[in-house]
User: Fold this.
Amino acid sequence: MAQFDAQSEERLKGVDPELVEVLREALSLGVIKFRIVEGVRTLERQRQLVQQGRSKTLNSKHLIQPDGYGHAVS
Assistant:
């Protein structure tokens, strides 16, 4: 079964467990290999991305949500 590399696993920390499960299932299908570039972001990181024009909002799903998890990966 396909597995994420150590760096992707690290980046999945703090991401909603249900989303992580979906990502693992997608990887296991073997149609395409992919890795996680970014999971949970700090508000500082999100501000930086907005300033660079790489994101348009400070209300990103990459930030920790009220349930305690991030709900986005890239």
Observations:
- The two ends are 22 Å apart (CA to CA).
- The mean pLDDT is 96.
